[in-house]
Amino acid sequence: TIDEAIQTDAAINPGNSGGPLMNGHGEVIGINTMILSSVGQNAGIGFAIPINTAKAVLNDLVTLGRVRRPALGVSTIPIGPELAEQIGLPVDFGLLIVKVSPGGAAEHAGLRGGTERAYLGNIPIMLGGDLIVAIDGENIQDQQDLAQVMNAHRAGDTVKVTVYRGKQKMDVTVTLGEAREQV
């Protein structure tokens, strides 16, 4: 995901993705990335990666030839008031851990995934896992909040994950792993 992508009406066509997006003062504010189009031509809506995001990964690109993204190593579902009440959670927000990746950062730190199969409509989910409500004091309401916190860190960083395990609130220290590439 791209946090806070810049939407632009500047022409971005095949071949100039990766070029600079500049403001009216001639300052580079982003890197052109993609267009919204069904025909491969500019339809008037493009997106750019903010320059501060690009700067944050520059060292990895230069030294490793790739970006090392941090990973918590969990699969989650967002919790709202209705679902929290239905399954008896102590708070009405956060991300419920349904699965912990074997060998991942969360497993090493002792975070727990769900163990009880249930259905959300027709979708099977696993309940009973830890409920993430904050990371380093930042409230976590949904996957976008989690992505923003992760993007502010690097693999190897240590974070304080605040969870509810049942009715008990606890802080768990997690050393972030490195996200695996998904093809």
The major pleated sheet works out as: 6 strands, antiparallel
CATH architecture of the largest domain: Roll
Order of helices and strands: EEEEHEEHEHEEEEHEEE
> What's the total helix number?
4
* Coarse structural class: alpha+beta
The named CATH superfamily of the largest domain: PDZ domain
Number of strands: 14
CATH class category label of the largest domain: Mainly Beta
- State the assembly state of the protein chains: single chain
Which fold does the CATH topology of the largest domain refer to?
Answer: Pdz3 Domain
Shape: elongated
Relative strand content: 35-45%
Low-confidence stretches: none
Tell me the distance between the termini: 15 Å
Number of domains: 2
Helix fraction bin:
10-25%
Whole-angstrom Rg? 20 Å
Mean pLDDT value: 88
In brief:
This protein is 19% helix and 37% strand. It has four helices and 14 strands. The strands form four sheets. Strands 6, 7, 10, 11, 12 and 13 form a six-stranded antiparallel beta sheet that branches. Strands 1-4-3-2 form a four-stranded antiparallel beta sheet. Strands 5-14 form a two-stranded antiparallel ribbon.
Summary keywords:
183 residues; alpha+beta; Thrombin, subunit H; Pdz3 Domain; 2 domains; 4-stranded antiparallel sheet; 4 helices
